[in-house]
Amino acid sequence: MVLKRINSINVLSFVTYLFAFSFALTPFFSSISLLFFAISSLFIIKIKKLNKLERLFTFCYSSLFILYAFGMLWTNFIPRATELLIRILPILILPLLIAYGEIYKKINYDKFKDFFILGVLISCVISLTYGIYRYTIDQNFDHLLYFDFGSFMHLHPSYYSLYIITALVFLYRTKINLALSYKIIIYLILAVCIFLLQSKISILMFFLLLVIATLSSIKKKRYKISALFFLTLIVLAVTGLNYGENRLNELFKKRDSKDIGSFKEDGVSQRIWLWNTALDHINDRPFFGYGLGSREKIFKWKVEKTILMNDYSPAYSQAIKSISKFNLHNNYLQILYELGIVGLAFFLFMCIRIIILGFLHKKWTFLSIYGVFLLFLFVEVALNRQMGIYFYAFILPMLFYQDEHIYTETQKSSNNSFM
Q1: What CA–CA distance (Å, rounded) separates 320 from 259?
Q2: 297-345 pLDDT tens trace
Q3: Is the pLDDT of residue 292 over 80?
Q4: How far apart are CA 313 and CA 67, in angstroms?
Q5: Which pLDDT value is given to residue 247?
Q6: Per-residue pLDDT reduced to its tens digit, 197-217
Q7: 29: pLDDT confidence band, cut at 50, 70 and 90?
Q8: What's the alpha-carbon Rg for the chain, to the nearest Å?
Q9: What's the 3-state SS for the chain?
Q10: Distance CA 76, CA 176 (A)
């Protein structure tokens, strides 16, 4: 019986590392890895009373599922609402499996992060190789940028960038048994990929993290590393602001409503229109919103009604009709639209509670990645998408339960760390 349990733990450790490894290696691979992880976890779960920290965290973390479940009571869009509720089930199930199975006690966190970094690195190398191959065929540099860069792995550039930023944070804060020169090579590959993916929010977050890492390295008198980070900042700033095709330049353009439906229309102008239009709609149903799953039909219907009531140009009418099919590209705004001020306030309160728990228990790595994810939600509806849900449901809870005291003691003995 003991031997059987030891084997189950060994298998669980393997599939946990496999799941961490899988994130940037296509959604299909990560889905299969999730299934293996969930099945393996069932063999080691024991009925126990969760401690206070586990209870608080799992309740706060499952708040979105709780919110959606209550949202089912007053929505008129049951099929879509049911689909959303089922889609976010991992947010409820995985933190519970981690807590009841005490998985955080059974794995090596250095290996966990190593496998995540390795998976992201392999994915980036494959994407770079594929992009260069396509470039050599038709001399089109677009094959190395944005959607084309993530196409081979079937990853949206924003989510791909989120995984790379997480790998960079792990690389910076984790003991890895590699020479510093190899770490620098890994860092440079990942940094280049961040730029090629052209996700504006990710580049800005990378820039912010670089500033923090540079100051931290100077404080720790690691001048070579701080020089590397500072040089990256300079290159990122100069290239980002001067390379004409860089999507980061879109943030600095002057805009007005005439951009929609013209050659000046871009991702920023589309988001601004979506957000302004959604806020206008919300004024009619501010407290409880239009109901879970309503955005897909109500938003489009209201836009079409507005087109009929106004004398818009054909180009503008066609453009906003097309854009109205998109999600709101802001998770907070989407919750506000569907579940109102009450729903958004509940979700934000739980996020704040999680942050407080993180500070009280000194979960610094978790707070770093969680902060990045919360900022990411301002421009993507990540908690309705598989790539965002898996990350939120697995990587972040695993990081929350990491014993950072043990990590700190391990880091002190490392001579080749980025820290």
Answers
A1: 11
A2: 999 999 999 898 888 888 888 888 889 888 999 999 999 999 999 999 9
A3: yes
A4: 40
A5: 61
A6: 988 888 889 888 888 888 888
A7: very high
A8: 23
A9: CHHHHHHHHHHHHHHHHHHHHHCCCCHHHHHHHHHHHHHHHHCCCCCCCCCHHHHHHHHHHCHHHHHHHHHCCCCCCHHHHHHHHHHCHHHHHHHHHHHHCCHHHCCCHHHHHHHHHHHHHHHHHHHHHHHHHHHHHHCCHHHHCHHHHHHCCCCCHHHHHHHHHHHHHHHHHCCCCCCHHHHHHHHHHHHHHHHHHCCHHHHHHHHHHHHHHHHHHHHCCCHHHHHHHHHHHHHHHHHHHHCCCCHHHHHHCCCCHHHCCCCCCCHHHHHHHHHHHHHHHHCCCCCCCCCCCCHHHHHHHHHHHHHHHCCCCHHHHHHHHHHCCCCCCCHHHHHHHHHHHHHHHHHHHHHHHHHHHHHHCCCHHHHHHHHHHHHHCCCCCHHHCHHHHHHHHHHHHHHHCCCHHHHHHHHHCCCCCCC
A10: 52
Q: Which amino acid appears at position 265 of this protein?
A: E
- Find tokens 């980061």 and name the residue: 248
